[in-house]
Amino acid sequence: MNGWQILSVTCIGPRPTPLPTDSGPTLLVFPADGEGEALAGRYAAATGAMVLGRLTQLGAEGDELIATRSSHGGRLTIDLRVTPGLVVATAHDHVFCTGSIQLGEAETLLALEQTPLSDQKMKLEAARIVVGGGRGLDADCFTLLEQIADAVGGAVAASLPAVDLGLAPVSRQVGQSGKFVNPEIYLAVGMSGTPQHFAGVGARARIIALNKDRDAPIFGFAEAGAAVDATAFLPLVAKALADMESASS
Ligand SMILES: Cc1cc2nc3c(=O)[nH]c(=O)nc-3n(C[C@H](O)[C@H](O)[C@H](O)COP(=O)(O)OP(=O)(O)OC[C@H]3O[C@@H](n4cnc5c(N)ncnc54)[C@H](O)[C@@H]3O)c2cc1C
Fold first, then answer.
1. d(Cα 167, Cα 69) in Å, to the nearest integer?
2. Domain locations in the chain?
3. pTM here?
């Protein structure tokens, strides 16, 4: 298939060597987690490589490499016909290769300095559990959301109005004009359930809603939820999780 090498980047050492630039059409597939996606972006910026985003499938049509990715929160898939050159993408372990496509391991590693990911900001897009806060909350509630997210290994997101109110930094904003997240579970607290917010949440996410208004639109599509006042309920959740943690340690 037109000389493509498709290499899976699994290991990035402290002093790696650059990939040769004369190695022909090359697709480098980084892990689809916070660190892999950050490195893929930085590598592309440093080398001018084309970026395909997060792939769900790789295949070929004649001599062409076809990379499939999802769009609009997993509601659509797009087949990208990839022009030969240096190309980067990310994928989970289970990226599905069809036909003659085989994923090799990158023998040479990338010349990038690693910056440790010290907080949750980079984790949001890769988190399996996202705890989202909306306009219905206050600063104390957002502190509790952070504690809850830490306890379950998740990350905190926010709606646009919550960001506008200064309850969370813009780097946490999810939605049409914010980030896209694709967790397994999305706990939405004090959010009404607008399409502009949920355009940023992948279709696979199981949504659990906490809202004091039992007629809030979010209860029309959440899988589970409770009509509760978050200011009274979140301290109980945070305490229960803290108790569980101390009982197990
Ligand atoms: C072009 C465009 C782009 C946009 N992009 C985005 C985007 O990227 N992301 C985004 O989020 N929005 C975006 N918006 C804004 C969007 O239209 C909504 O205004 C926003 O999503 C609503 O956020 P919310 O659910 O936090 O607030 P609201 O709709 O005001 O809902 C607040 C909810 O909190 C509940 N509540 C109140 N107090 C409590 C309490 N004590 N306990 C429990 N529940 C409580 C209320 O019952 C209510 O349902 C965009 C809008 C436009 C026009």
1. 33
2. 5-105, 120-248
3. 0.68
